[in-house]
Amino acid sequence: MLTVRRLDVNLDGVPVRGPDGPLRVPVVAIVDSVTWVEGKGLVRHDGKSEAALRVVPLPRFAADLLRERLVLPGEDNWLLFPAVGRDGRITYRYPSYVRFPR
Protein backbone atom coordinates (compact mmCIF):
# COMPACT_ATOMS: atom_id res chain seq x y z
CA MET A 1 0.00 0.00 0.00
CA LEU A 2 3.01 2.29 0.30
CA THR A 3 3.09 2.93 -3.45
CA VAL A 4 -0.66 3.38 -4.04
CA ARG A 5 -1.39 6.36 -6.25
CA ARG A 6 -4.70 8.10 -6.89
CA LEU A 7 -5.04 6.33 -10.22
CA ASP A 8 -4.79 2.90 -8.51
CA VAL A 9 -8.04 3.44 -6.59
CA ASN A 10 -11.50 2.76 -8.05
CA LEU A 11 -14.09 3.98 -5.57
CA ASP A 12 -16.92 3.66 -8.10
CA GLY A 13 -16.29 -0.06 -7.76
CA VAL A 14 -16.18 -3.07 -10.00
CA PRO A 15 -19.39 -5.01 -10.68
CA VAL A 16 -19.81 -8.27 -8.75
CA ARG A 17 -22.69 -10.63 -8.26
CA GLY A 18 -24.05 -10.40 -4.72
CA PRO A 19 -26.64 -12.52 -2.94
CA ASP A 20 -29.35 -9.95 -3.71
CA GLY A 21 -28.22 -9.15 -7.25
CA PRO A 22 -25.43 -7.10 -8.81
CA LEU A 23 -23.48 -4.63 -6.72
CA ARG A 24 -20.32 -2.55 -7.07
CA VAL A 25 -17.31 -3.08 -4.80
CA PRO A 26 -14.63 -0.36 -4.42
CA VAL A 27 -11.12 -1.70 -5.09
CA VAL A 28 -7.47 -0.69 -5.02
CA ALA A 29 -4.86 -2.10 -7.40
CA ILE A 30 -1.52 -2.95 -5.82
CA VAL A 31 0.77 -2.72 -8.85
CA ASP A 32 4.24 -2.34 -7.35
CA SER A 33 6.20 -2.20 -4.12
CA VAL A 34 9.06 -0.29 -2.57
CA THR A 35 12.36 -1.61 -1.24
CA TRP A 36 15.63 -0.21 0.08
CA VAL A 37 18.60 -0.43 -2.33
CA GLU A 38 22.07 0.33 -1.02
CA GLY A 39 23.39 3.53 -2.59
CA LYS A 40 20.01 4.45 -4.12
CA GLY A 41 17.63 4.60 -1.19
CA LEU A 42 13.97 3.67 -1.57
CA VAL A 43 13.20 2.29 -5.02
CA ARG A 44 9.82 1.41 -6.49
CA HIS A 45 9.66 -1.79 -8.56
CA ASP A 46 6.97 -3.74 -10.38
CA GLY A 47 7.44 -6.97 -8.44
CA LYS A 48 9.03 -10.24 -9.44
CA SER A 49 6.15 -11.66 -11.49
CA GLU A 50 2.66 -10.97 -12.76
CA ALA A 51 1.41 -12.34 -9.44
CA ALA A 52 2.67 -9.12 -7.83
CA LEU A 53 -0.39 -7.33 -9.28
CA ARG A 54 -3.27 -7.59 -6.85
CA VAL A 55 -6.72 -6.07 -6.87
CA VAL A 56 -7.98 -5.74 -3.31
CA PRO A 57 -11.60 -5.03 -2.36
CA LEU A 58 -11.94 -2.15 0.07
CA PRO A 59 -14.09 -2.32 3.19
CA ARG A 60 -16.63 0.48 3.48
CA PHE A 61 -14.67 2.39 6.16
CA ALA A 62 -11.51 2.38 4.00
CA ALA A 63 -13.42 3.53 0.91
CA ASP A 64 -15.02 6.34 2.94
CA LEU A 65 -11.61 7.51 4.25
CA LEU A 66 -10.12 7.41 0.75
CA ARG A 67 -13.04 9.44 -0.61
CA GLU A 68 -12.17 12.18 1.90
CA ARG A 69 -8.49 12.06 0.93
CA LEU A 70 -9.20 12.09 -2.82
CA VAL A 71 -11.22 15.32 -2.68
CA LEU A 72 -7.97 17.11 -1.82
CA PRO A 73 -6.23 18.55 -4.90
CA GLY A 74 -3.55 16.42 -6.52
CA GLU A 75 -2.32 14.68 -9.64
CA ASP A 76 -3.39 11.13 -10.55
CA ASN A 77 0.13 9.79 -10.09
CA TRP A 78 0.58 11.28 -6.58
CA LEU A 79 1.04 8.88 -3.69
CA LEU A 80 -1.90 8.54 -1.31
CA PHE A 81 0.36 7.95 1.70
CA PRO A 82 3.53 9.98 1.04
CA ALA A 83 6.43 10.71 3.34
CA VAL A 84 8.74 13.70 3.31
CA GLY A 85 12.46 13.03 2.90
CA ARG A 86 15.26 14.81 4.70
CA ASP A 87 15.62 17.10 1.70
CA GLY A 88 11.94 18.12 1.96
CA ARG A 89 10.88 16.21 -1.17
CA ILE A 90 7.96 13.79 -1.29
CA THR A 91 9.06 10.15 -1.15
CA TYR A 92 7.86 6.69 -0.17
CA ARG A 93 7.41 5.53 3.40
CA TYR A 94 9.96 3.03 4.69
CA PRO A 95 8.38 -0.46 4.70
CA SER A 96 9.94 -1.25 8.09
CA TYR A 97 8.06 1.70 9.66
CA VAL A 98 4.65 0.30 8.76
CA ARG A 99 5.30 -3.46 8.81
CA PHE A 100 3.52 -5.53 11.46
CA PRO A 101 5.86 -7.13 14.00
CA ARG A 102 6.25 -10.88 13.73
List its salient traits.
single chain; 102 residues; mainly beta; 3-stranded antiparallel beta sheet; two-stranded antiparallel ribbon; 2 helices; 7 strands; 37% strand; globular
Verbal overview:
- The chain is mainly β and 102 residues long.
- The chain has one domain.
- The protein contains two helices and seven strands, in the order βββββαββα.
- The chain has a three-stranded antiparallel sheet, covered by helices on one side. A two-stranded antiparallel sheet has the order 3-4.
Condensed summary:
By secondary structure, the chain is mainly beta. 15% of the residues lie in helices and 37% in strands. The chain has one domain (6-98).
Quaternary state, please?
single chain
What structural category do the secondary elements indicate? mainly beta
Task: Let me know the largest β-sheet.
Answer: 3 strands, antiparallel
Mean pLDDT: 82
The termini sit apart by 19 Å
* Helical residues, percent: 10-25%
Rg for CA atoms: 16 Å
Order of helices and strands: EEEEEHEEH
The number of distinct β-strands equals 7
Cross-sheet strand order for the largest sheet:
1-2-5
Q: β content, as a range? A: 35-45%
Q: Please work out how many helical segments DSSP would assign.
A: 2
Number of domains: 1
The general outline is globular
What are the segments in which pLDDT stays under 50 over at least 5 consecutive residues?
Answer: none
